[in-house]
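Dock 6-O-phosphono-beta-D-glucopyranose; give full complex structure.
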Amino acid sequence: MILKYEFPKGFWWGSAASATQTEGSSDKDGKSQNIWDYWYSNEPNRFFDGVGPQVTSDFYNRYKEDIKLMKDIGLNSFRFSISWSRLIPNGIGEVNKKAVEFYNNVVNELIDNNIEPFINLFHFDMPMILQNIGGWENREVVDAYEKYAKICFELFGDRVKKWFTFNEPIVPVEGGYLYDFHYPNVVDFKRAVQVAYNTVIAHKRAVKEFKNLNIKNGKIGIILNLTPSYSRSNNPADLKAAYIADLLFNRSFLDPVVKGEYPKDLIELLKQNNLLPEVQKDDKKLIENNKIDFIGINYYQPRRVKAKACMPNPEAPILPDNFFDNYEMPGRKMNVYRGWEIYEKGIYDIAINLKENYDNIESYISENGMGVQNEERFIKDGIIEDDYRIDFIKEHLKWLHKAIQEGCNVKGYHIWTFIDNWSWTNAYKNRYGLVQLDLKTQKRTLKKSAYWMKEVVKNNGF
Ligand code: BG6
């Protein structure tokens, strides 16, 4: 077969998932509540169709079945997260034996099926007991996270070689402290900056612990949603707006984790607006050192930005949107279910940016995918014919292939996600899986995209 798009040998084909979105058993076997369990119990009406995280796709009980399906499709790697509130129900202190057993089983099952486990330590799921003392605003939580990370490396590092400290750490900042889509639903830019900063400190401390342990062949990184900021035009005011959006939402994490320093312009912007976080004296050194080995990139949509059309309301709290307006480009291609623009070239632009400005650090696409509502209407002969998803993946892969041809150091592609999962407040509104989940019966059925993916993996291209 002649392949038009052939990927490098050993390319990581896989999928990604997170604990809260797939495990279920959210109050079983000693797990304590995390912010999602708590928020749902308190305000179920904030979740689509009132569906919470108690059951989800029941990975806690069905991991063997799911791993077998991954193997059938031919996937060679899988990224999942550990639930901190399951492993250490008090956030700090005693380790839950049942949780250790579960994660050991998952790791071993993956390895037995020739699927490499990638572990992520934190995917939006702060233990409630630690949120009660301020979550990421409190340095004690940073200390607790460092201990939790070390415990995970020690428990699973003999078999797991690819580690991530956080998934999209900017999202809990945006959701929890700016735009009210995660608990604790605070709207306060200064507190948001503190949360972001303390998350970077937590990340750095975990990296330091990891390096001290000298895990054989081990690599540590972070997963960032590097949403490119495109300016409406070349007008200097539009360009400046896009530059600020990029500083706030991308470079606030990308620069300290890869380069070991914050962008000077970001510090200046925060200073001018009285938003600088509290820092401690050893932080600078910690940030300068402890750089990552590789990076995961989540990419779904671009950010389009224009200069502000009018002055911000002086009565309203200051927000990042005081510095730019979002721009809806006429004629843009949309995923109308999620309300996200589809712009495949973004994946290429991110890779080129890492090549040109971040020393071509080793990277991989750790999430990319398409959530669609009411997919049952596409069922033909018993399977969902999700050609739109196949097109979505294919078009992104073409741009990724071009980036690799041009020398970008990209090692893999993970689809979000393997099986339809619980999408936070959207619950099961939009389905992302290669595998269809019947929520009532927990039956799993491969979609057309799974069969297509199987061919791609088998041929290492298409
Ligand atoms: C990423 C997250 O932001 O996008 C996932 O890492 C999330 O946890 C995915 O599910 C898709 O977004 P959503 O909000 O549609 O679930």
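Observed: The mean pLDDT is 98.
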